[in-house]
Amino acid sequence: MRRIGILGGTFDPPHLGHLLIAEEVRINLDLEEIWFIPSYTPPHKNDANTGAADRIAMLQCAIKGNPFFRINTIEVERLGKSYTINTMEALRASNKDVAFYFIIGADMVEYLPHWKRIDELIQLVNFVGVKRTNYTVDATYPVVEVDIPMIDISSTMIRNRLAKQISVKYLVPDAVEAIIKERQLYES
Fold it and tell me: Is 167 within the bounds of a domain?
């Protein structure tokens, strides 16, 4: 059976923290690939600040060069709010030979009891929790904990810096920064 990691999010924009998390989980759990799944509209947030096409373009540039990273646009194609249960049901139906490992930050581990149809979801996927500043990986549901080097970067912080015209060098891949500048994303 193949072992695939899933990293979902808005990736608005994708940053080095996303890439570090994905690579560390891949290595620690001996996963064949990591699939980045950008959401169209996440259920726990407002709409993304940037359109799906721009976020996918940035994500493509961010993962370029890592042969273990892929993009799956299932949630963008679905449109509307994306619930993990719906995504995982569809992925399992078309990938019967895959054990999926859904990567979440410690902040989301605490929120698991509130996820839509969580009791069914834990039958479809193995949750992987990664540490995040000010959070612990304590859950009432089974969660595999993976220690990663702490890197306190968020897309919100990057958007705020860009709105104030503060450099994001070394926070996002150079190619992502180039797209942000070229398309004038996140300007106030």
Answer: no
Domain contains 187: no
**CA dist., res. 163 & res. 40, Å (int):** 23
Integer Cα distance of 159 and 162 in angstroms: 5
Length of the chain: 188
Total domains, the chain: 1
Range of the domain at 58: 2-150
Percent of the chain surpassing pLDDT 70 = 93
CATH of the domain at 138: 3.40.50.620
In tens, the pLDDT along 135-165 reads 666 778 899 989 888 888 999 999 999 999 9
The pLDDT assigned to 22 comes to 97
Q: Which of 130, 92, 94, 89 is nearest to 109 (CA)?
A: 130
Tell how far CA 104 is from the center of its chain: 8
Q: Does 165 fall in a domain?
A: no
Spell out the long-range contacts of 148-153 with Cβ–Cβ below 8 A and sequence spacing 24 or more: 148/20, 148/21, 148/24, 148/25, 149/20, 149/24, 151/16, 151/17, 151/20, 152/17, 153/15, 153/16, 153/17
Region 71-88 average pLDDT: 90
